[in-house]
Design brief:
The complex is a heterodimer. Chain A has a single domain, classed as Rossmann fold (3-Layer(aba) Sandwich). Chain A is globular and about 45 Å long. Chain A contains six helices and 13 strands. Chain A is about 25% helix and about 35% strand. By secondary structure, chain A is α/β, with parallel strands linked by helices. Chain B is of the alpha/beta class. Chain B has one domain: Alpha-Beta Barrel (TIM Barrel). In chain B, helix 2 packs parallel to helix 3 and helix 6 runs parallel beside helix 7. The chains are: A alpha/beta, B alpha/beta.
């Protein structure tokens, strides 16, 4: 069984993520222990609230460097919600904030006449085959709560798209780095399956 | 496409689900985990728990309840009822709630909304507004805000309060019509529409669901993003799936 560590850096409720892995029969631990995070076979980077606050909290604990090292070693990483946004180069939230930069692109606020936050169940249309989506139907509903979305110039990194005023990347993957904008731990069967896929699937270990 | 949400609401007292017309003739209606699982299976999009525990150990009792439900039900949970401080909010969020509703506490100290949004994010700060028509027969007269479970008038306009709550950092409005609550005469669609038009955050309509078309009116004419109902589901008049089938048939996007 693959050991998944959910990075606890003081933001959000991580218990649900841990329980959702457990419900799918996968061993996962919530950890703020650098030693444990260095040994885990797979890492989950959660995140709620403000991008910049999340980035600072990661940095204060030295977990930004830890995550960079683990990703460079080929460890599969799954960013969830704001955790996915942190994978990109920068966010326009509060001016400009720098992210981890594993994926090219920026995090932008929904505009226009839309109700923001984008809250509720919305569909994901798969754009290409990947271990993360195994057994999950095209057009499946997941639970979203966010005001910002990721915009990337790398079409190959986009695994799934969702429509809310615009079509945006709601699932991304490049090499061993993956991200989902929705909350799989709150998305019933489809979400539990995705977490199971991440824990057990053949997420590529090397950068492509 | 974003689906409209159907949200069953459960009243809980000392960790047990209770049924009744708000605060009257309460009867024990079972274990919140079992009830939560049942609604989850029926297709509920979220669950809302309204805690009415009055005892001194309230915070720990509520946290324990939320933990037990969140460990087994993998849809979003909202918890409200008597949350007064950031520490109260933190306790239920840590236990596994995704959102909290603030009602009386937000009116008494509106900064609480901003403080909560800064610490936990706007997405989990729901402001619950209990509104009553100033003139029962004329919606143009507007709606007053009530607190303390509807017992105390604040003298504020409900539509203005909703807009101010958004400015303060609320991520959603849970809007209950006191005129309609428990009547099954339908949601106050004019109230729902007035608030939906005044804010850019999602509005959850509550109070008055009795027939299937009531849900349709609130979600279309009322402009609500979600509808909440309590007694209609508890007493088995309709199941969540019945409501969804009906709405889907009328062209409303459902999960």
């Amino acid at each position: 069984m693959t050991r998944v560590a959910i990075i606890d850096y003081g933001v959000g409720n991580l218990r649900s993520v841990e329980k959702a892995f457990a419900a799918g029969g996968c061993e996962a631990v919530v950890s703020s222990d650098a030693g444990e995070l260095r040994e885990a076979e797979r890492l989950v980077l959660p995140g709620v609230g403000a991008f910049r606050a999340c980035m600072s909290a990661l940095h204060e604990r030295g977990f930004d460097e830890l995550v960079r090292e683990r990703v460079a070693e080929g460890t599969p990483l799954l960013g969830v919600c704001v955790g996915m946004q942190l994978l990109f180069e920068e966010s326009e939230e509060f001016g400009r904030s720098e992210g981890l930069g594993f994926l090219r692109g920026r995090v932008r606020r929904f505009g226009g006449e839309l109700r923001v936050p984008h809250i509720g169940w919305n569909q994901v249309e798969w754009r290409r085959e990947h271990a993360l989506m195994k057994g999950i139907e095209d057009g499946s509903f997941f639970y979203f709560v966010h005001s910002y979305y990721c915009e990337t110039p790398e079409p190959d990194a986009v695994l799934g798209e969702t429509e809310y005023g615009i079509k945006y990347a709601s699932v991304v993957a490049r090499g061993n780095v993956c991200g989902v904008q929705f909350h799989p731990e709150k998305s019933q069967a489809a979400g539990l399956r995705l977490l199971q896929n991440f824990a057990r699937g053949e997420v590529q270990r090397r950068e492509v | 496409m974003l689906a409209k949400r159907i949200i069953p609401c459960l009243d809980v007292d000392r960790g047990r689900v209770v049924k009744g017309i708000r605060f009257l003739s309460l009867v024990d209606a079972g274990d919140p985990v079992e009830q939560g699982k049942r609604y989850d299976l029926e297709g509920a999009d979220e669950l809302t728990f309204l805690d009415i525990t009055a005892s001194s150990g309230k915070r720990a009792i509520v946290a324990n309840l939320v933990r037990r439900v969140a460990d087994q039900v993998f849809i979003p949970l909202t918890v409200g009822g008597g949350l007064n401080t950031i520490e109260d909010v933190r306790a239920v969020l840590r236990a596994g709630a995704d959102k909290v509703t603030l009602n009386t506490a937000a009116v008494e100290r509106p900064e609480l909304i901003t403080e909560g949004a800064e610490v936990f994010g706007s997405q989990c700060m729901v402001v619950a507004i209990d509104a009553r028509r100033k003139n029962a027969r004329d919606a143009k007269a507007g709606w007053d805000v009530y607190t303390h479970g509807g017992r105390r008038g604040v003298g504020w306009d409900a539509v203005e309060w909703a807009a101010r709550a958004e400015q303060l950092g609320a991520g959603e409005i849970l809007l209950t019509s006191m005129d309609r609550d428990g009547t099954r005469d339908g949601y106050d669609v004019e109230l729902t529409r007035a608030v939906s038009n005044a804010v850019r955050i999602p509005v959850v309509a509550s109070g008055g669901a009795g027939k299937l078309e009531h849900f349709y009116e609130a979600l279309t004419t009322g402009g609500a993003s979600a509808v909440l109902a309590a007694s209609l589901f508890h007493f088995g008049q309709y199941r969540v799936g019945d409501v969804k089938d009906y709405l889907r048939g009328r062209g409303v996007m459902m999960r």
